[in-house]
Amino acid sequence: xxxxxxxxxxxxxxxxxxxxxxxxxxxxxxxxxxxxxxxxxxxxxxxxxxxxxxxxxxxxxxxxxxxxxxxxxxxxxxxxxxxxxxxxxxxxxxxxxxxxxxxxxxxxxxxxxxxxxxxxxxxxxxxxxxxxxxxxxxxxxxxxxxxxxxxxxxxxxxxxxxxxxxxxxxxxxxxxxxxxxxxxxxxxxxxxxxxxxxxxxxxxxxxxxxxxxxxxxxxxxxxxxxxxxxxxxxxxxxxxxxxxxxxxxxxxxxxxxxxxxxxxxxxxxxxxxxxxxxxxxxxxxxxxxxxxxxxxxxxxxxxxxxxxxxxxxxxxxxxx
Length: 320
Prior knowledge:
Layout: H1 3-9, E1 14-19, H2 29-38, E2 46-48, E3 54-59, E4 65-70, H3 76-87, E5 91-96, H4 102-114, E6 119-123, H5 144-155, E7 173-178, H6 189-202, E8 206-211, H7 215-227, E9 234-238, H8 246-254, H9 260-267, H10 272-292, E10 297-301, H11 307-316
Parallel strand pairs: 1-2, 1-10, 2-5, 5-6, 6-7, 7-8, 8-9, 9-10
Antiparallel strand pairs: 3-4
Helix pairs in contact: 4-5, 5-6, 9-10, 10-11
């Protein structure tokens, strides 16, 4: 079932979440455990992240250092299919521009169609870990609006090989990312909204946002989107603070602001358990305010930790 159909048919706010593929060499069982912890809360769909190659430096026997690229979290396609068929829950695999050509994207779309997966989240993706800037591979996309255009063309039965005859259209619901505090590479918010509108005009059907900790940023972002002519559903993305290190790492990694009131309450905590408890309480307040504002639903970034999400949903979502 397509995300936009799920939103249209929903009788209450949706609960959705995101999972990372296991590290290479690990099993799928931890993913199943995370899902089964959250199954009682009826997730509407599950996103599966995609990770491109990372740069690592390896010491050689001759004393020199060798630069290598490795993929530490493969398996987005296989994991999506496994979840889709084991649990019967719609999945939304992430597609990224990084490390992928247009032809490889087309082949992946065909495989997804064969598997009966009809939702995707189209992202440019970050630079590989260890690299400072994003560079598209030869034959790839610099920005995700190009990827969206190709997926939308596939939905019309148009493929890269124009000589094909009798080609069948795909049927993908296309999600894209939005940034309530702007993408860190954008010079200003107006520019970032214009770039987002390019993705919608290219054929995207809905937006899910980067995490944020100040709901005013989200509400302002939605207002700016609507004023710019973006009318698709906008789903807020949320993550609870669970470690004191999050106060430094989340702003550094995701370029988001953490309100002073959050920082003060977390810094007052003296144990990891107290930090987790306070982080969950703060997230419950944030989610409750969003649900009161009648957002379509809330999308949770779990980063493999499902227990806090279960507590937040239990406390903030209306009971059936």
